[in-house]
Amino acid sequence: MRLAVVVLAVVVTACSAAQPQGATPSASVGTAAPRPSTPDGRAATPGAGKLKFTEIAALERPVAFTVRADDRRLYVAEQGGKLRTTDGDTIVDLSGEVSGGNEQGLLGVAFHPSGRWLYLDWTDRAGTTHVTEWAYDGKKATGRREVLTVEQPFANHNGGQLAFGPDGHLYVALGDGGGAGDPEGNGQDLGTLLGKILRIDPRGGRPYAVPDDNPFVGKEGARPEIWAYGLRNPWRFGFDRENGDLWIGDVGQNRWEEIDYQPAGSEGGENYGWDVREGAERFRPGRAEDPVDPVIVYSLDEGRNCSVIAGFVYRGAKIPWLRGQFLYGDFCAGWIRAAPVDDLERDRRVGEVEQLSSFGEDHDGELYALSLSGSVYRIDPA
After folding, report:
1. Does residue 27 form part of some domain?
2. Range of 44's domain?
3. Where does the record place the Glucose/Sorbosone dehydrogenase domain (predicted)?
C-alpha cells in the first residue's frame, strides 16, 4: 500500500507500485453489463465545457457528503471522526473512538429518507466496522444505536459508503477485508459480508431487517444481507436520482481501476468478479459465477493513477451540457472526467481536484467534490 499524501492513501489507494509519469487515462466499456441509457432514451450531449470548482468550506480530511430531507445544510464526514456541516457545526464527534489507520476512521454518512435518523460508517480502535444510528431533530443527535458491526481481518479495504436507495433501503459498502490480493478469498465468498454491497432495513427490526426480496435470502451458506458481491474496495457508489441506476467505483489491485454498473430494476446478486478478475482481466485462477464486466476501466500504469473515486450522473440545472453524464475521478492523479451514460467511451477530462476523496450531490442534483487536503468544492460551470 503506497503512503498517503495526508492520511488517506486511504480507503482509496490501490495496492500497486508507485505510478510512472504519463498521460491521463481513457475509459473503455465492458461487454457483459447492460448499456446505461438516459430515462427518455435520448443521447446525452457531451458539450465542450469545463467545470469550475468553487471552495465553499475548509474542513479536516473530508471524505463523505450527504444532505437531509427538508434541510438545506450540507453534511460532511471528516475521516478523523467528526460529522460537520459546511457552515462549521459539529453534529457527532467520534474522534475519541475511531481508529487512525490510513484506511480507517469515519468513512460514510447517510440520512434516512425521512430525515429523522442519521447513520455513520466508521472503524473503532480494534478496526471493527460499525454502522451506527442516531435520532436527529436537526439540532442534536441522540439515542445512539448499533445497527451493524463487522470484524475486519486487516486495516485496509474497509469500504465505507452508505446510501439509501430509491427503494428506501440502506446500502452498505464493505471491502474485501484487506491484505493484498484478497488472501482470505472474501470477494467470492457468499458466507461473509466482506467484499460486498449490503441492502438492509435499519428501522425494520433490531438491529435491522433483511428485505424479503434480497437475492440470497433463503440460500444455504449465503448471507441474506448481500445485494452484490465480487468487490475489492467499493469506496464510493451512487444512485442516479432520475432512474435509480447504481454506479460503483471499485478500487483495483495492481493494474486496473473500474466502474461497475447495476441497472435500475435489477433483482440484485450481481457478481463483479473480484478476486478472480481485476477489471475485465483474470487476476488469479478460480471461478467467478456469471461475472459482470465493468463499464469503465482505466490503467494504473498511466500517469499518477492510483484509486478510482465514483461520483454521480449529473441531473442538475446549472450546467446544461453536463446533464446525463457520469462524473468520476482518481485520488492521486486528481483528474475528473465526465462520460455520457449512453456512450461512455466519449468521456472527457473536465477538471482537477488535488487528493480527490469523494463527490456529493445536493437536493437539486448539483454536485460537489471533496479533497482530502480539506476543501469542499461546489461544481459550477466554468
Report:
1. yes
2. 9-381
3. 59-371
Distance CA 12, CA 359 (A): 13
For residues 187, 192, 194 and 196, what is the CA-based torsion angle, rounded to 10 degrees? Answer: 70
116-153 pLDDT tens trace: 999 999 999 999 999 999 999 999 999 999 999 999 99
Q: Amino acid letter at 22? A: G
* 2 in a structural domain: no
Q: Model confidence over 327-381: pLDDT tens digits?
A: 999 999 999 999 999 999 999 999 999 999 999 999 999 999 999 999 999 999 9
In the numeric block, the cell 510512472 is attached to: 20
Q: Is residue 155 part of a domain?
A: yes
- Assess if residue 3 is contained within a domain: no
Indicate which CATH number applies to the domain containing 122: 2.120.10.30
pTM: 0.90
Count of domains for the chain:
1
> What span, in angstroms and rounded, lies between the C-alpha atoms of 85 and 310?
22
Give the per-residue SS3 of the chain: CCCCCCCCHHHHCCCCCCCCCCCCCCCECCCCCCCCCCCCCCCCCCCCCCEEEEEEEECCCEEEEEEECCEEEEEEEECCCEEEECCCCEEEECCCCECCCCCCCEEEEEECCCCCEEEEEEEECCCCEEEEEEEECCCCEEEEEEEEEECCCCCCCCCCCEEECCCCCEEEEECCCCCCCCCCCCCCCCCCCCCEEEEEECCCCCCCECCCCCCCCCCCCCCCCEEEECCCCCCEEEECCCCCCEEEEECCCCCEEEEEEECCCCCCCCECCCCCEECCEECCCCCCCCECCCCEEEECCCCCCCCEEEEEECCCCCCHHHCCEEEEEECCCCEEEEEECCCHHHCEEEEECCCEEEEEECCCCCEEEEECCCEEEEEEEC
Going 354 to 332 to 229 to 133, the CA torsion angle's sign is negative
φ, ψ for residue 189 (rounded to 5)?
-95, 110
